Amino acid sequence: MPRITANSIELEYDTHGDPANPPMLLVMGLGAQMTLWPIELVQGLAQRGFHVIRYDNRDIGLSHKFEGAKAPGMVRQMLLTRLGFRPRVPYTLSDMAADGMGLLDALGIERAHVVGASMGGMIAQLMAVEHGHRLHSLISIFSTTGNRKLPQADRKAIEPLTTPPPSMEEADLVAHGMRVSAAIGSPGYRPDPEAQRQRVIENVRRSVYPQGLQRQLAAIIHDGDRTERLKRVKAPTLVLHGEDDPLVKVEGGRATAAAIPGAKLKTFPGWGHDLPLELVDTIADAIAEHAHAAHPA
Q1: What is the DSSP secondary-structure string of 240-273?
Q2: Could you please report the per-residue DSSP string of 151-207?
Q3: What pLDDT does residue 73 have?
Q4: What is the CA angle 37-287-96, rounded to 5?
Q5: Mean pLDDT by 10-residue block, N- to C-terminus, for the chain (297 residues)?
Q6: How far is the CA of 36 from the CAs of 61, 122, 138, 156, 297, in angstroms?
Q7: Closest Cα to residue 260, out of 91, 105, 135?
Q8: Whole-angstrom Cα distance, residue 199 to residue 185?
Q9: pLDDT at position 76, please?
Q10: Residue 184 and residue 247 in contact, taking contact as beta carbons nearer than 8 Å
Q11: Looking at residue 88, what is its pLDDT?
């Protein structure tokens, strides 16, 4: 996979499909490498007429690491935020949005369809708010507005994600990855355990960097409620969400669609906070239909 300088840092990325087709930028979530976009979905989007670009966010995978940068503890940061203070963070979600725009710049791409999942959806939302002229369309997947009055994650879903693995030994890392996937996954679409284990092993062997997750989480908390900002989004928007998401509840998707003028919302029963292979064609069809309607090739 190639690496490129974007927004003054190095980002790992790959591309799929015909470069002559409309570009589509995929933005992944908290502590998640770009390989969490199933290759079946990536190829499905390419087959539906897009030049698909995915990348590792800063501080994860094979992209730039902010070694030594200190993030405030999650509990302390949330408490201070509720009291009206904003502790300093190593970087913001707006910085991460600028990374994606920098990647498009480095690739010579003026405008793109942007698809973001979870934290990636938050980043994609900020791309639409702060760089709206660069987006043909926005697709926000199992994400939210940041409004703390919305239903929060189930404890059994958030704890494995925010608890570090017991060691950096491969066996512990794989076991930790399996716990996370089981905690946040789709109750209606449980993966084959051995196939899932193999996917976790491949990601563990590609990169493990728990420190980055803490700094990314600090950026999420720091960004706060985007509801008012989302009212400025002009890009045609589609919101996709699982009705059984234990990490980002479906109300987060509904709130996102309600905040963005003209946004469309599609929810699916049995879908949690992952991208199950059984839903790949459904998700790809929804994204492609929306993007083609927003900007016919």
Answers
A1: EEETT-SSS-HHHHHHHHHHSTT-EEEEETT--S
A2: PPPPHHHHHHHHSPPS-SSHHHHHHHHHHHHHHHS-TTSPPPHHHHHHHHHHHHHH-
A3: 77
A4: 55
A5: 93 98 98 97 98 98 96 75 80 98 98 98 98 98 97 93 91 96 96 96 97 94 96 98 98 98 98 98 98 88
A6: 11, 17, 19, 21, 28
A7: 135
A8: 14
A9: 73
A10: yes
A11: 87
Spatial separation of the C-alpha atoms in residues 30 and 91, rounded to whole Å: 14
Cα separation, 229 vs 261, whole angstroms: 11
Hey, where are the domains in the chain?
A: 3-294
Say if residues 233 and 138 touch (Cβ distance below 8 Å): yes
**Residue whose structure tokens are 């600028």:** 98
pLDDT of 297 reads 66
Q: Report phi then psi at 266, rounded to 5.
A: -130, 125
pTM comes to 0.96
Contacts of 284 (CB under 8 A, 6+ apart): 41, 44, 45, 48
3-294 maps to CATH 3.40.50.1820: yes
Residue labelled with tokens 């994606």: 100
